[in-house]
Amino acid sequence: MPEEALSLEELALRYLTSLPAEERVAKQQEVNKFVLWYGKGRSVSHITPTELETYAQWTAAATGDVNKKLEPVRSLLQYARKEKLLKTSLAPHLRIKQAHGKGSGPRKQKQAQVTLTANDHAELKAQLAALEEERVRVAEEMRVAAADKDFRENAPLHAARERAAHIEARMNDIQTSLATGIVVDTEAQPETLAAKLGSRVSLVDVATGGKHSYTLGTKNEANPANGKISIDSPLGKAVLNQHEGDVVKVVAPAGEILYQIEKIE
């Protein structure tokens, strides 16, 4: 099946069935949680590093044993890369960002402004509707499981409660994006030679002569493996609103990189 057509649910099934029975049982719950959180029907090729970092932070907030919870998902991503279902390795992005600064108490972070295209907005609403349906099903599972009065050994009830918590958290994330996001009409943007949302930009590395081509998208659309970068990424910010022939500077861990914009489409 082509990478673009493979859903995350199908990837999880393929991965789990490749495992020995004992290992499959040990990893199935965490893999299924990730699939539910991300969206069962979403394409494998749409997984982004930013979403993986968000999932890791989200998991850390729900449990103290983070590495144990994330290891099955890392294995899933490593399997996808090995089977050439992903063009780049995404497993390293499933990590916890370290907090900086003094003080032991939690700090409120300023809500980042989210830019959405009309397609982004529609997809988020579809995900929200699917999660609402899933929430109803999980609530019924909890009701049935709760009929067993022995709560100490009631694994189905505990699993349903965890799924319910993940669903609520994901729904909150989506609702926040829908409520605070700015919807940009790419068709309505002025026609200009400047790079804008939706532009295809051809770049030349000034130092090496290497050529690269990217499409500028929103954070939700970003997929570097498929040549689509976010306008909020370092390179996206550098290129946005610049013109053909301009030289832009990107600060990378290895130092500054200069690119000349060869063509904008």
Give the topology.
Layout: H1 8-17, H2 21-38, H3 49-62, H4 66-82, E1 115-117, H5 118-146, H6 155-180, E2 182-184, E3 200-205, E4 211-217, E5 228-230, H7 234-239, E6 247-252, E7 255-264
Parallel strand pairs: 1-2, 4-5
Antiparallel strand pairs: 3-4, 3-7, 6-7
Helix pairs in contact: 1-2, 2-4, 2-6, 5-6
Structural class: alpha/beta
Using only CA atoms, what is the Rg?
Answer: 21 Å
Q: What is the CATH first-level class name of the largest domain?
A: Mainly Alpha
Unreliable spans: 99-110
Shape: elongated
Q: Main sheet, how many strands, which sense, barrel?
A: 5 strands, mixed
Please give the order of strands in the largest beta sheet. Answer: 5-4-3-7-6
Proper CATH architecture of the largest domain: Orthogonal Bundle
